[in-house]
Amino acid sequence: MKTILLTLTLLMLCTSSLASNVENSLVIGIQSAKTQTIRPLLPEERDMLSLYDLMYESLIYVDDDYNPQGKLAQSWESSSNGKTWTFYLRPAVTFSDGSPLTAQDVVASAQYILDRANDESTTDSGFYANLKYFISSISASNDSTVVVRTSKRPCFGLLYAMTFPVVPAALVDSDNPPGTGPYQLNTFVAGDYAWLQANPHWWQAQPQVQEIMFSFHETQKAVVESYEYARVDTVFSRSIASAQYKSGTSSLSISYRTNQLECLLMNNSASELTKEVRQAIRYVVDKSKIISNVYSGMVTATDLPFYPGTWTYNDSLSSYFTLNQQEAKRLLQEAGWGDSDEDGILDRLNSEGKLVRLHLRFYVYEEPENDVRLEAANQIADMLAAIGIDTTIEAMTLPNLTERLNAGSYDLALVAFAMDKVPDPGFMLMRGNSGNYTRYRSEEITNMFEDLRTQTTQTGYQQVLWRIQSRFAEDCPFLCLYWRMGNILTRYMFTTARDVREYELLRGIETFHP
Known about the structure:
This protein is an alpha+beta fold. It has three domains: about 1-25 and about 185-250 and about 490-514, 3-Layer(aba) Sandwich (D-Maltodextrin-Binding Protein, domain 2), CATH 3.40.190; about 55-180, Dipeptide-binding Protein, domain 1, CATH 3.90.76; about 260-485, Dipeptide-binding Protein, domain 3. It contains 13 helices and 21 strands. Helix 6 (about 275-285) packs antiparallel against helix 8 and helix 12 runs antiparallel to helix 13 (about 460-475). The radius of gyration is 25 Å and the shape is globular.
């Protein structure tokens, strides 16, 4: 234990006064208060996934262009109908304890995830539960070949689901199983720290950074304070407050994208929110103003439920998403709304001949340590007021808002979705699906998603994705606003990755050479 403490002290003293390239060690501050054991197949906390990403590898990884590439899988092929996918393992790969990787390890890791995901008695299906939508069975035809038989989705999206960590078959339900990644765990003290060292059995060249110390903190505020007081070299933060740190001579700020998509939901079943009214709202919600005034730039604007700049995003649809207050007013007039009493709020006669005003219930919930969504809602309300739409904003807890969404008892709601790595937002758009809180009903788009889930090539998959986005833009069931961003604050550059993503924030440290 004295050796461990001495190493921790030395690592913490390595902080430099000038920004430079990382050398042989790094001290990282992250938020972790719940993780008691190292269980890569059942992660409990967001930041711990970036730690696991250094120790464990998957069959497939997603590159900087958001394309699937082989990691433990050297190659793969699918049957013409996508019902069977065969993965061929990279030869001579071993775990950090020196034991060889086999197809049986991949099968056991996947089966552990599937059993948990399909267990109706548990309330926590696990981080990788989406695997159950793709795999009906998985087996090993020999020590180096994995055969997957697909279920509901025999498609290209399967490759993105095959990014789960692989551990030895006999240790899938054990604490701290060995992995095949560039680092291995030396010491873990829950709530305190984890000490990683380079894995001497890694199948690639040994990393330059030989030791990484993770210092755990209970809150995001404590994480950032550790950086301010130079107790750590690097921190991950999604706090808006971290936007104040800019790259300079003594510190670097690296933006990373999260999987959190912020949306303005509109209840399509509400009599007021016809297609014309929804489109009018889209014409006046100024995302750039919200981003500047509320989020300090720590979001990336998006018009569609995909990340801009990737092959999944149909950027030919920008004309649907321009700001145009005059067109918004025209659409409202077309929908029968006017201002008969000239009080600045639109009104019209209902079916009973009674004058009703265009008033919308606007619900929002806040997140701990990032309580800016209410401010964003107020800005949106001001934008709607400019075209005569009146709103009443009410802040509530997430459980209360979820109850309202499930019951359809709302008009507008400012919410965030945790989007899956698989580029398939069918859960929020297909008729009757659990995340379709807007009650959007389109047989055409539902059929498109069913078609998407049969496409086995990237080209075919992209073509259907883009058609889905075209229909989404035309119907305007809700507004996609922006993807939340985070910051890596660091005194040392440690990666050349272009697309830094949540859950793998240290990707590239194993191959970084200044």
